[in-house]
Amino acid sequence: MKDITTYKNQKILVLGLAKSGVSAAKLLHQLGAFVTVNDAKPFEENSEAQELLALGIKVVTGSHPIELLEEGFVKIVKNPGIPYTNPILEKAIEKNIPIITEVELAYQISEAPFIGITGTNGKTTTTTMIAEIINHGSEKKKAKLAGNIGFPASTVAQNAAGEEILVTELSSFQLMGIQTFRPKIAVITNIYEAHLDYHGSRAAYVEAKWRLQKNMTEEDTLVLNGNQPELVTLSKQTKARVLFFSTTKELTEGACLKSGSLYYGSEKIMDASELGVPGEHNVENALAAIIVAKLEGCQNEDIKQSLAHFSGVPHRTQYLGVYAGRKFYNDSKATNILATEKALSGFENEKVILLAGGLDRGNDFDALVPFIKGIKAIILFGETKEKVAKAAKKAGISTILFTEDVTSALPLAFAQSQNEDSILLSPACASWDQYPSFEVRGEKFIEAFQKIKEVRE
């Protein structure tokens, strides 16, 4: 960790806690700043605030009082989830107080370089693939996961040596709060419409994602999805060297899918069928990871072996295993229709039993119809089960079953399945009608899978 004096004796406000806020507050305290933490959760329910208070850090909880800004803060480190429309942030902007996110703080103190990955879909999978390839067969793991993937960048950066690499997943929320952050390699997996409630418009969302490359120079490399015309157009607006990946176009540079195989330039890396996770979206993720791995000097055989054994990120088309000839996949992270469409692209529909349903956000599921045609059966639960059933009937699915939740859905799915079928949880809905998070929903599916094996063994 760099020994910086930037924050010594400076008054800094950390707005919002969770993992990143706690990490930022502790780091700033260590750097000699006068830190005040402000979190909306009441103190008696706020174990994080209690922990920071015990360290001698000032905490203000229960609300975000605008009066706090009268204390003369020179900078605010903001939790990414707090929108800039929050009154205290609007007032801070009016007073010209700089607002950063924790990843910017991490960059300022890190001795290790960054690889930054963002995108609407696939960023967690791509981030994990990159780290696993770089570390494949290595006695000393060189790549360290950081950022939006669950490891606060400012914590990881403190313990990273100069010869290591921070492979960092970055959300649009985090990227809005960078100033000097400069990755040596950056990846944008794709851009679709998302988080409009936070950003206000698609243009603002795209602008936030594009900030990933704002400080990059000719010495750095930006990896972009060549399937997307929008990113091809944006590529003309960066100083960084650009390499594309594509599943639809043959490329002489970068990475592409050609005749069923994954290539880096003219070098064949592996057959697409050898990937450990199914789906065209995972072919895209793998192509992006291959470019980064080659830039990092990884050998083709190491890349192939790593991607062939990659079983997916938990809850993202995660392969759980085979039992009684059936393959089981946990894609609980599919909280919208687009994510389920992408998951289904990796399967033969006539061999799929789909588990779906969840929180009702007011939309219908007609967009799902072309993608679920031909599937063997669909098991539905949650608030949207009747709506999804309407789409299933339009798709001509003959076996449509209703149940209470994920736990009861799996035995029903198993009963409808045969040897060589795939049982796929890909709900196309958020989980909050029944579960506190998609992770909990996915864990319940995994538990149900384990129970089926125990009962029948």
Quick overview:
The protein has 457 residues and is α/β, with parallel strands linked by helices. 34% of the residues lie in helices and 20% in strands.
What multimeric state do the chains show? Answer: single chain
Provide a count of the helices. Answer: 17
Averaged pLDDT = 95
CATH class of the largest domain: Alpha Beta
Approximately what portion of the residues adopt beta-strand conformation? 15-25%
- Based on CA inertia axes, which overall geometry fits? globular
Count of β-strands: 20
End-to-end gap: 52 Å
Q: Give the biggest beta sheet.
A: 9 strands, mixed
Given helix and strand content, the structural type is alpha/beta
The level of helicity is: 25-40%
CATH topology of the largest domain: UDP-N-acetylmuramoyl-L-alanine:D-glutamate ligase
Considering the protein shown, what is the CATH homologous superfamily of the largest domain?
A: Mur-like, catalytic domain
The side-by-side strand order for the widest beta sheet comes to: 7-8-6-9-10-11-12-13-14
Question: How many structural domains can be distinguished in the coordinates?
Answer: 3
* Poorly predicted tracts of residues: none
Q: CATH architecture of the largest domain, please?
A: 3-Layer(aba) Sandwich
Present the secondary structure layout.
Elements lengths: L10 E5 L2 H13 L3 E6 L7 H8 L3 E4 L13 E4 L8 H8 L4 E3 H8 L4 E5 L4 H13 L7 E5 L5 H6 L6 E5 L2 H4 L9 E4 L7 H4 L2 H9 L10 E5 L3 H6 L6 E6 L8 E4 L2 E4 L2 E5 L8 H16 L4 H9 L9 E6 L2 E5 L6 H8 L7 E5 L12 H4 L4 E4 L4 H10 L5 E3 L3 H11 L5 E4 L12 H19 L1
Parallel strand pairs: 1-2, 1-4, 2-3, 4-5, 6-8, 6-9, 7-8, 9-10, 10-11, 11-12, 16-20, 17-18, 17-20, 18-19
Antiparallel strand pairs: 12-13, 13-14, 15-16
